[in-house]
Amino acid sequence: MRRVLVALVGAQPQNRKLLEDAVIVSQDLLPSAVAELDLDHAKAFATDSGGWTSHTAILARGVGIPAVVGLRDFYRRTKTGDKVIVDSTRNEVILHPSAATLAYYRTETTSRAKRSGTMGLRETGPVSTEDGVEVTLRANVEVPSEFEAVERYGASGVGLYRSEFLLARRGAMVSEDEQRVAYEAIAKVAGEQGAVIRLFDLGGDNLREQFQEPEKNPALGLRAIRFVLRNEVVMRDQVRAILLAAATGSLKIVLPMVADVSDVRRAQAIIQEERANLSGAGRKIGDVKVGAMIEVPSAVFMADKIARIVDFFELGTNDLVQYTLAVDRGNDEVADWFRTLHPAVLHSIDHSLKAARTAGIPSIVCGEMASTPAYVVLLVGLGATDLSMTPSSIPRVRRAIAGIDSENARLIAQECLNCDTADEVENLVRERFIQTWPQLFPPASLPTAKQAK
Ligand code: PEP
Ligand code: MG
After folding, report:
1. Which residue owns the Cα nearest ligand 1 atom 6?
2. Confidence of residue 54 (pLDDT cuts 50, 70, 90)
3. E-state strands within 244-333
C-alpha cells in the first residue's frame, strides 16, 4: 500500500525508520524491503513465506540478521508490541515467551556473540584438504554493509556480487556513472583476487515489483539475462560501467541464468561492442573476463558447448535445485520437495564441473550449498575447488575442508551419484560422514533425511 501511494505521488521510496529495536514479522518480505530497512534496529525477521534459498533469506544471512522463514501462519497470530524470540539456529519462533525463556535467550545470545566474535577469523586465503587439494573461498555480496565482512572472514575476493541490489536500495535504475562508482568500490573491497559482477538478475523473486509488469510465472519469465537482453540500454549502461571500473581493479562479468549458447553469444556481442566503443572513444577500460552462470537444466545439458565460449563457469546451486526439480525456491508449500541433495542435482553439478575441466576453464560454485559444510564436502568430492558464499560462513566451511581428505570425499560423492532418491543420499551422507569424520560431523550436526531440505 505504501509503495502504491509513493508511486501515485511520484516520490522516491523513503527508508523506513524504526524508532526502537524490533523483530520484523510479515507474510512476505521482499528483498527490496529488506534492503530499505533500518538495519540498526531490525533485529530479526520472521516471515510466513520463503525458503532457505529465497533472496530475502540470503540477504538476511548476508547482513547477519537472524531470520526464520516459511512459518505459514505466524503473521496473523501476532500484533505490534508482542514479544517474539526468533531462534534461527533451531529454526523456531517463540511468541509470548515466559520470563524464564526470555532469561535463557538473553544469556544464550550474549555467550554466543562472545563465542562467535573471534571464531576462525584470523585465517585468510585458500584452504587445503588433509591430502593437499587447495580450495579457494570467496564472498557473496549484496549490499555495502557486507563489505567489511569480506576482509574480516578472510575471503579471497568477491565470487558473486548480486548487482541488482544496487537497484533495490534506490528503487529505480542507477546511472552508468553511479554504477561505475559502485563497481570501483567492489573492486577495492575485493582486492587482488578481484570481484565477479553478475549482470542484473531482475525478475523471479528479485525486485520484480519495481521494474516489471506482474508475470503469471515469474521464475520462468523475463528474468536475468532475458531481462537485460530485452532492455539492451540497461545492459549496455551496466557493461560500460563495469568495463570502466575494471580500469581501477580486477573485475569479471557473469551472465545470469543463461539457457544456452545463443544467450551467451548475444550477451558477448553487446559486451564486445561496448569494449570497442569505449576504446574507440579513448576511455581506459580493464581486461574483463566473461563467465556464465550454470543454473538451469538446459545450460547443464549444453555445458560442454558453453564452456568452449566463456572464460569461466559459476554454478548457481539455488536455482539449479529450483529448476532441475521444478520447485519454487520461495514457496514454503513445496519446501519438502526442495532437495539440495537430490541425485539429479548432484549429477547436474558433476556434469557441469566436468565440462568446465574438459574445456580447461575454472568453475566457482556459489549458492547456499557452498555455504553449508556438509554439502561443501560433497562439492569437493565432485571436484569443486572454488566456492563463493555468505562471508560469515567462511570459517565453518574452512574448518570442514581442512578436516577432510579429498579422496574419501570423492568416494562418498560417487556413491551419492549412484543413489535413487534424495532420502537415500541424505542417509548415506549421514552414515559415511559420521564414520569417516566423527569429530567434524557429530550426529547432531547432520540433518536426518526428513529434516534436510
Ligand atoms: C544461485 O542461483 O545459486 C545463485 C547464486 O544466484 P541467486 O541465489 O541470486 O539466484
Ligand atoms: Mg541464481
Report:
1. 316
2. confident
3. 251-255, 289-294, 312-316
According to the model, what pLDDT value does residue 447 have?
Answer: 65
> In this structure, what are the phi and psi dihedrals at residue 286, rounded to the nearest 5 degrees?
-95, 170
Question: Residues 210, 320, 226, CA angle at the centre, nearest 5°?
Answer: 40
Say whether pTM exceeds 0.85. Answer: yes
Domains in the chain: ranges and CATH? 2-98 (3.50.30.10), 127-445 (3.20.20.60)
Ligand 2 center–CA 294 separation, angstroms: 9
The mean pLDDT value for 4-25 works out to 74
Query: DSSP alpha helices (H): ranges in 281-392?
Result: 297-301, 303-307, 317-325, 343-359, 373-381
**Residue pointed to by grid coordinates 587447495:** 134
Long-range contacts of 434-437 (CB under 8 A, 24+ apart): 436/404, 436/408, 436/412, 437/403, 437/404
User: First and final CA of the chain: distance in angstroms?
Assistant: 34
Kindly list the distances between the CA atom of residue 238 and the CA atoms of 92, 200, 226, 309, 414, in Å, as whole numbers in the listed order.
Answer: 41, 8, 15, 21, 41
Amino acid making up residue 203: G
CA 251–ligand 1 middle distance (angstroms)? 19
